[in-house]
Specification:
6-stranded mixed sheet, ATP binding, binds magnesium ion, 10 helices, P-loop_NTPase, nucleotide-binding, single chain, about 250 residues, about 25% strand, ATP-binding, alpha/beta, binds adenosine-5'-triphosphate
Length: about 250
């Protein structure tokens, strides 16, 4: 269980997160919000790659994550929004390399590399250089690496960005399948990525939680004929001409 309290984050004078509070239990959490809402900042902090403001509390099963240090980081799988891939590495070698960084034994790494790359439908090309992969294939390698070492907490920052509908479905199914017995936090601009698989949705707006709950709870405030998550999301972004986030399936982010 991950418990977050009084989480604030300033970048200089700019405040990106305001008193964020949330308790994450096993399940899939869909993190929605327009550009600049604070999604990546939140994931960077949870993955212990970015320090929050003093006084912020993040506890893993009751213990502060800063006290747990590497013990906590070993439980985390993270796919950052921007990540460099080694173009001259093959997919297999990249997975083995990340495994080594995570301290996973070679035997386990081999097995998991085969399994995870099959799951993202890259088994046939695992010995080809990543440099020749399409954007979607690279994205799938990155999702696969986040699951190495059977993490208990998985953070996926826009795993479906730039993917075509079929590839998005592959990623969505994989998240759904691997989400058992772990906490999975997925940020996206595409409501349909998480609508059917998330146990809970968190809608962020300007560094604050605008709404959270199950899809059912979030749509329950709408008239029956308008009960979609997309409509529930748009309730929080009524301003005209301001992008409430590219939540249309056809728009890219
Ligand atoms: N390194 C930084 N220095 C200064 N400001 C930053 C930095 N990183 C993020 N910010 C600001 O913090 C706010 C939250 O940014 P963040 O990247 O967390 O949003 P996001 O929800 O992930 O957006 P997107 O959907 O575009 O990825 C934004 O106003 C952004 O400009
Ligand atoms: Mg982001």
């Amino acid at each position: 269980m991950l418990q977050i309290k009084n989480l604030n984050k300033h970048y200089g004078k700019k405040q990106a997160l305001f008193d964020f509070e949330m308790t994450f239990k096993n399940g899939v959490y869909g993190l929605l919000g327009p550009n600049g809402a604070g999604k990546s900042t939140l994931m960077n902090i949870i993955s212990d790659n970015l320090a929050p403001d003093l006084g912020s509390q993040l506890c893993w099963n009751g213990t502060d994550i800063t006290k747990l240090g590497s013990k906590f980081r070993r439980k985390v799988g993270y796919m950052p929004q921007q990540q460099a891939l080694y173009d001259n590495f093959t997919a297999r070698r990249f997975m083995m390399y990340i495994s080594a960084l995570k301290g996973i034994s070679t035997a386990v790494a081999r097995e998991q590399t085969e399994y995870l790359l099959s799951e993202v439908e890259l088994h046939d090309v695992m010995d080809k250089a990543i440099g020749g992969f399409s954007g979607g294939m690279k994205q799938r390698v990155l999702v696969a690496q986040s699951l190495l070492g059977s993490p208990e907490l998985v953070l996926l920052d826009e795993p479906t960005a730039g993917l075509d509908p079929k590839q998005r479905v592959i990623i969505r199914d994989m998240i759904h399948k691997t989400a058992k017995d772990k906490i999975v936090l997925v940020s996206t601009h595409i409501v349909s990525d998480v609508e059917t698989i998330a146990d809970e949705i968190i809608i962020m707006k300007q560094g604050r939680i605008a709404a959270n709950g199950t899809v059912e709870q979030l749509v329950s405030v709408l008239p029956h004929e308008r009960r979609t998550l997309e409509n529930a999301y748009m309730l929080h972004f009524p301003e005209k001409n301001t992008a409430g986030g590219a939540i249309d399936e056809n728009s890219s982010v």
